[in-house]
Design goal:
Blueprint: H1 2-22, E1 35-38, E2 40-41, E3 45-47, E4 52-59, E5 69-73, E6 76-77, E7 96-104, E8 110-117, H2 129-132, E9 140-148, E10 153-162, H3 170-187, E11 191-199, E12 205-212, H4 215-231, H5 233-242, E13 250-255, H6 263-277, E14 280-287, E15 290-297, H7 298-302, E16 305-310, H8 315-320, H9 341-353, E17 357-360, H10 383-403
Parallel strand pairs: 1-10, 3-10, 13-16, 13-17
Antiparallel strand pairs: 2-4, 4-8, 5-6, 5-9, 7-8, 9-10, 11-12, 12-16, 14-15
The structure holds zinc ion.
């Protein structure tokens, strides 16, 4: 009996710790028993990088004294949610404001109001290193409430505050991958394979996904095409020139090595979802200085390409929101010496696949930077052989990039 009790206590403690980490600011709500009713909202997704207005509506019934209504977010008054004021201080003006006071909808007992969720950090770019290590604490689900203190009624809605809508915590990556696998099984017969390359310094899995037309595509590349390319390149070139290769595919590896450049991970998840689930992908690009819409048939793409997704090869850095791994190493400076477990595990797989293209997604440099042939150089790269294709690919990426974003130029140093 005693043992069970302490087990329960430990469980409650874990719950309490979890609650504390999930909801950053502890609720100051009193023990009063509110009658809870629904708060209708026009949106439930809020953002740390985009100002959003939220229209709310609730029917409290008759006899509501408008002056007795109060908004709470995560159990705290809106005036307590102050903007970042430098360092680790949050003493600025409130970032959540009422822009349309609660009022009755004509001839009804329904009350309407409009809130504005502004920018907690006073900016939409959170790349500043001081901010980068802090903003994750605010991500989570919150109770948005309109409380009638006179009648003890509380209209509530659960809303999510995120850095941007597609952001994934490390812990959310695997469930998201699993969900895409489930949906793809119903949607098409593409080949999907999940592997963990091993564990990070702190014991987290390195998630890796193979997406191909079918298993034969993967087997043929690994067992025939690649060994021939490495051991007998002349015979492979001959086959290609004579059109005797038959059906074959080559791998494109998509990677993220700096997980605090957070969009590099989430953009990859979005790409993975599109190529695993969609029949067609449409985007804009530029051809002969003209904007042009392009539609890719994904099955046609998979006739030529095997996609490899290394969502992040620094899971511990994703959790801590740091560039370095748990030992303090920038893994992007560890590829030559391979002193870190993550580098060893990923390098082994890169060597196994020898991908034709390897795209590492970074963030937070000024402008839209594409680096096909810039330092630091690996002595094994023979640029005189590579740069023609690499620069052509960089231009293709840049032209599509500026046609589908707010950027109007890209830079190839
Ligand atoms: Zn980087």
């Amino acid at each position: 009996m005693k043992k069970r009790f302490s087990g329960l206590l430990a469980f409650l403690l874990v719950l309490a710790l979890f609650a504390q980490s999930a909801i950053p600011v502890s609720a100051t709500e009193t023990a009063e028993n509110y009658e809870v009713i629904e708060l209708e909202t026009n949106r439930t997704l809020l953002s740390l990088t985009e100002t959003r207005t939220v229209e709310v509506m609730a029917d409290f019934g008759d006899n509501v004294e408008l002056s007795q209504l109060e908004f709470l977010f995560g159990g705290k008054s809106l005036s307590d949610w102050k903007k970042w004021s430098g360092g680790t201080s949050y003493n600025g003006d409130p970032f959540i404001t009422v822009i349309e006071e609660p009022h009755f909808v004509n001839g009804t007992t329904t009350i309407k109001a409009t809130l504005e969720f502004g920018l907690l950090y006073g900016r939409d770019n959170l790349s500043n290193r001081t901010i980068r290590t802090q903003y994750q604490q605010f991500i989570g689900d919150y109770e948005l409430a309109l409380v009638d203190t006179a009648s003890n009624k509380k209209a509530t809605q659960t809303v999510e505050l995120n850095v941007y809508d597609q952001f994934h915590f490390y812990e959310e990556l695997k469930p998201t991958i699993d969900q895409v696998f489930d949906e793809a099984e119903v949607a098409n017969d593409r080949y999907l394979e999940y592997q963990s390359f091993g564990k990070s310094v702190e014991g987290r899995d390195l998630h890796f996904v193979v997406l191909a037309k079918d298993k034969e595509a993967v087997d043929k590349y690994l067992n025939e095409t690649l060994p021939t390319a490495l051991e007998d390149p002349d015979s492979l070139l001959e086959k290609l020139e004579d059109g005797e290769m038959g059906d074959y595919q080559v791998p494109v590896w998509i990677n993220n090595i700096h997980p605090d450049e957070v969009e590099g991970v989430d953009a990859q998840v979005e790409l993975f979802k599109k190529f695993a689930l969609e029949d067609e992908i449409t985007f804009n690009t530029i051809e002969n200085k003209q904007e042009k819409e392009v539609t890719l048939n994904v099955d046609d793409v998979l006739d030529d390409v095997i996609f490899l997704y290394m969502f992040t090869n620094n899971p511990d850095g994703r959790v801590a929101n740091t560039r370095a791994n748990a030992n303090g190493f920038d893994l992007n400076r560890d590829n030559h010496y391979q002193t870190q477990i993550e580098t060893k595990e990923v390098t082994q797989e890169i060597a196994k696949w020898t991908p034709l293209s390897f795209l590492d997604m970074h963030g937070y440099v000024p402008g839209f930077l594409i680096e096909p042939t810039t330092p630091p150089h690996n002595p094994n790269f023979e640029y005189d052989l590579l740069y023609g294709n690499m620069i052509e690919q960089a231009h293709a990426m840049g032209e599509a990039g500026i046609s589908n974003s707010a950027y109007d130029s890209y830079e190839i140093p």
